[in-house]
Each structure stands twice: as C-alpha cells, then as structure tokens.
Amino acid sequence: MAPLITAETAEFALALPNGGKLIGLDVGTKTIGLAICDAGWHFAGPVETMRRIKFTQDLETLQRFVGKESVAGIVVGLPLNMDGSDSPRTQSVRAFARNLAPLGLPRLLWDERWSTQAVERAMIAADVSRARRAEKVDALAAAHILQGAIDALANLGPVE
Predict the structure, then answer these.
(1) How far apart are CA 160 and CA 151, in angstroms?
(2) Using alpha carbons only, how large is the chain's radius of gyration in Å?
(3) pTM of the predicted structure, to 2 decimals
(4) What is the pLDDT of residue 117?
(5) How many Cβ atoms from other residues are within 10 Å of residue 62's Cβ?
(6) Of the candidates 76, 98, 80, 97, which has an alpha carbon nearest to the alpha carbon of residue 22?
(7) Which of 58, 70, 139, 153 is the most exposed place for a label (fewest CB within 10 A)?
(8) How far apart are CA 90 and CA 157, in angstroms?
C-alpha cells in the first residue's frame, strides 16, 4: 500500500501518531527548497536549496537526507492559483509529491500561495542583497511552508 498523500492536516497527523521530524519542500522547476522541523513540531528551519537534476537523482538526494535525519513525514508546498484552483504548475508539484512514494513516508500537500512573497518581503526588510535573496529564498520558503503546516498540526491538539 502506498503511503498517504493528503491535503488534510488531521489525516496527515493520524498517519504520524508519534510525531517525528518533518521535511518541507518548496518544489520549483530548477531548484527544491528544503527545510526541517524538530520531532515535536515546534520550529522549522531552512536546510538548503537543491539544484534539480533528474527526478531519480533528486529522489536519491532526498532519500539520503530522510535517512540521515530520521524523517517521519513530508510537507510539500502546493502552488495553487490565487482563487484556490490548480494550475499546470500545481499539477506538476502534485505529480512530484506522488513520485515521492518510494520514500515510504506520508505526504501533506500544503497551500503555499504566499510563501515566497512573504520570505522575499522579510529579506528585503532585513536589507538582504538581491544575490543573497536569490540564493536563500527557496530554502526559506520551504521553512515558511513547513512552519505553517506544523502550526496547523499543533492546533489540532493531541492526536487520538
């Protein structure tokens, strides 16, 4: 049976009754922003921006990271249109998330409509140079996505 893939926070939480570290992914066409949170789902932080090569190589890189960090689940940022509908990019990210099944982990699709803009605004406010912003935005967007998901998970209360 394939591991769970859902957009429902409660369903995802039920697949992880003992918590565990989660990774957040901001999947772009050329890069993947990667973030991680603690096993108690309190704080998410950026890890790196992976340059995409081919899916099989990207999957191997993620598999090594998941194994090294003992990750329990994956949160994938879903780039919906502003009206909440799907776009061709949304469909591509859904397919990417489905293709992560060999990792054997539950996956949560998380609405990321404002993540990159929020991170960009924060970096501009902090007077981060344009070059430095370009280098860090994907990993920081992944952390923003993951933090939103773990905040929602925490608001569910104890999983029964």
Answers:
(1) 18
(2) 15
(3) 0.87
(4) 66
(5) 21
(6) 76
(7) 70
(8) 30
Residues of the chain with pLDDT under 70: 1-2, 113-120, 122-123, 126-128, 130-135, 157-160
Q: Which fold has domain 5-155?
A: Nucleotidyltransferase; domain 5 (3.30.420)
The span from the CA of 140 to the CA of 6, in Å, is 23
Angle of helix 130-155 versus helix 115-125 axis, rounded to 10:
130
Q: What is the pLDDT of residue 47?
A: 94
Name the DSSP class of 108: E
Q: Which two tokens stand for residue 38?
A: 């603690």
Other CB atoms within a 10 A radius of the CB of residue 34 amount to: 22
Type of residue numbered 32: I
Distances (CA, A) of 98 to 84, 93, 95: 20, 9, 5
- Residue 29 and residue 143: Cα distance in Å, rounded? 18
Both structure tokens of 42: 């309190």
User: pLDDT by residue (tens digit) across 103-128?
Assistant: 999 999 998 866 666 666 765 776 66
Euclidean distance between CA atoms 73 and 93, whole angstroms: 17
Strand, coil or helix: 111: strand
